[in-house]
Design a protein that fits this description.
This protein has helices at about 85-105, 120-130, 175-190, 205-219, and strands at about 10, 15-20, 30-35, 55-60, 65, 70, 115-120, 135-140, 165-170, 195-200. Helices cover about 25% and strands about 25% of the residues. By secondary structure, it is of the alpha/beta class.
């Protein structure tokens, strides 16, 4: 849970957001995309000691999840861990509209933004990158994967010249590490340069990989 004195919980354009504004006049925008059963509070553990020029926004996903929290796609019984590109396109389009509106409201003049996603949030982040590559500057995919259906976008190499941070645990029973490695090959075929951190943990991000993520975002 983030420190309430450092963040604000707001309602904006029908979204629930937890935000942290930057005092820098030339701030960058960082979106924090939570995983299945998470919410707007879930991702702040990754933001400690990040560069102060970041304005950070953590949106609550639009669909209720079971047994608690929220999801970036409608619940599909029997398809846990198998979201497809088509199922996530509506949320991706809605997020881009949210980002445009928030940038305008906050006076952040930037054509692109950075994004970090965990688990289903990492899947969601990869969808944003493939569908709106011109909008993404840097992307952190934590304990996630690239969804099926993305293959048709690879040939155009939409991620050419972009760097992507990937972190995964070798003991992850929710998203096996082999799936992350397969996803990295897809990202490379799409043109991305990969910074990879692998550690001996489960469905989480190790302290070493959190430090590596901070270094990646500072460059």
């Amino acid at each position: 849970m983030p420190d309430p004195s450092n963040t604000d919980l707001i309602e904006f354009n029908d979204w629930t957001l937890r935000v942290k504004a930057s005092s820098h006049t030339s701030s960058r925008l960082l979106f924090l995309i939570h995983g299945l059963t998470g919410d707007e509070d879930s991702m702040w553990i990754f933001t400690r000691d990040l560069p102060s020029q970041y304005s950070m926004v953590a949106p609550r996903a639009p669909h209720k999840a079971e047994p608690f929290g929220y999801s970036w796609r409608p619940i599909q019984p029997g398809t846990f861990g198998m979201p497809t590109l088509g199922e996530l396109v509506p949320a991706a389009s809605a997020l881009i509209r949210l980002i445009d509106g928030y940038q305008a409201s906050a006076g952040i003049e930037a054509d692109d933004f950075d994004v970090i996603g965990f688990s289903q949030g990492a899947v969601m982040s990869s969808v944003l990158a493939f569908l709106y590559p011109q909008r993404i500057r840097k992307m952190g995919l934590l304990a996630g994967f690239v969804p099926s259906g993305i293959e048709e976008h690879i040939l155009n190499r939409p991620l050419e010249g972009k760097s992507v941070f990937v972190a995964h645990g070798t003991k992850d029973d929710t998203v096996p590490v082999e799936r992350a490695r397969e996803s990295m090959e897809i990202l490379k075929r799409a043109g991305a340069a990969i910074t990879y951190c692998e550690d001996d943990v489960g469905h989480k991000v190790s302290l070493n990989c959190v430090r590596a993520l901070r270094s990646y975002l500072e460059d």
